[in-house]
Amino acid sequence: MKPTDKQIIANRGNAGRSTGPVTPSGKAIAARNSLKHGLLAKEVVIDAGEGAENQEQFDALLADLKDQFDPQGTLEEMLVEKIASAYWRLRRAHRFEVGLIRNSLDNLTDNFYNEETYGDDKKRTDEEIEQSIKQEQEYLEQWKKDKKELTAMHKKGKPLDEIYDWQDNWDWLAEKVNDVLPERDEHTTPEPKEMRQLLNTQANWSDDQIWQAHIELCDDRVKHHRERILELEKEKGNNKLALQVKKKLGSVPEDPELNRLLKYEGSIERQFYKAIDQLERLQRRRLGDNVPAPVNIDLNVNPPQGG
After folding, report:
1. Roughly how many angstroms between the first and final C-alpha of the chain, as a whole number?
2. Dihedral-angle region of residue 305 (phi above 0 means left; psi in -120 to 50 means alpha; beta otherwise)
3. SS3 helix, strand, coil % of the chain, rounded to 5?
4. Are 150 and 214 in contact (CB under 8 A)?
5. Is 30:20 a contact under the CB 8 Å cutoff?
6. What's the Cα-to-Cα distance from 160 to each of 143, 179, 197, 203, rounded to whole Å?
7. pLDDT in tens, 18-69
8. In 10 A of CB 246, how many CB atoms?
9. Cα–Cα nearest to 131, from 278, 61, 47, 229
10. CB distance 126 to 236 below 8 Å
11. Among the four 92, 126, 141, 292, which has the fewest Cβ within 10 Å?
């Protein structure tokens, strides 16, 4: 019977439509392809928002595992997906570990210098210590300059009243000679002229001795500032060593994050190796091997006390 025009049009429309495989082997291939993006494959990848992961990378991982294990049937396909899922989650756990360590190290220096110390609000940074060293060095150079000028003036026979305006020098001299002026009020510092009179009358010092005391005082102050610079350098060095130790310790997450991470990784690894073991047993059985029943061992590493 000759087809009508309507049948010809209908046949042309259906010609581009696939009715799917009809042979057993074709149906098996179609079933396998349908599992390519199964439940785990769809749910394991974070596909949106901050921290979004790459679906193509997971698909490539799954394809590689399928090539390696060559799963046959739905159950083997599911186990391969479970292996891929566990591996993907382990990668995520490793990123979490890196994030914990990165967060610790990034804040380590600030936290170190903000720690309270005995007698101080916080530790001083290298910049602050360097500023103190610079100031101490300036003081040291000034005292060296004072010694040079005082020595020159004394050699020329200059009177003491020419250095009455050197107030800092007289103040430090008062501290230096405090033991030879027992009647002096320690809470007040006499003016240079009064200080000279006290040394002349109470300590029986000549003006020449007062000149010498001023010059020796310069050496004392130079020595003091040198020692202070050494202390500051040591402080900076100690900070550097302490930071190095803290950075090494910071390479491992602290509790409770570490326990959380280890628990999570341990759980995923058990799933990972269990899925591999189950897949291998299924495949061996499919190939005709005599596969014994799995042996379950309950290992208690914390036996009860006092038994």
Report:
1. 95
2. beta
3. 70, 0, 30
4. yes
5. yes
6. 18, 22, 11, 17
7. 444 556 555 445 545 544 546 666 788 888 888 889 999 999 999 999 999 9
8. 15
9. 229
10. yes
11. 292
pTM above 0.70, yes or no: no
Q: Are 218 and 150 in contact (CB under 8 A)?
A: yes
Residue 221 in tokens: 């102050």
Number of Cβ within 10 Å of residue 257's Cβ equals 16
Closest CA to 154 of 204, 192, 208: 208
Q: Are 68 and 276 in contact (CB under 8 A)?
A: no
Q: What angle do CA 95, 100, 106 make, to 5 degrees?
A: 115
Residue 143 DSSP SS3: helix
Residue type, 5: D
The answer to whether 221 and 139 are in contact (CB under 8 A) is yes
Structure tokens at 5: 């025009």
Q: Each residue of 47-76: b (16+ CB within 10 Å) or e?
A: eeeeeebeeeebeebbeebbeebebeeeeb
- 267-285 tens-digit pLDDT: 999 999 999 999 999 999 9
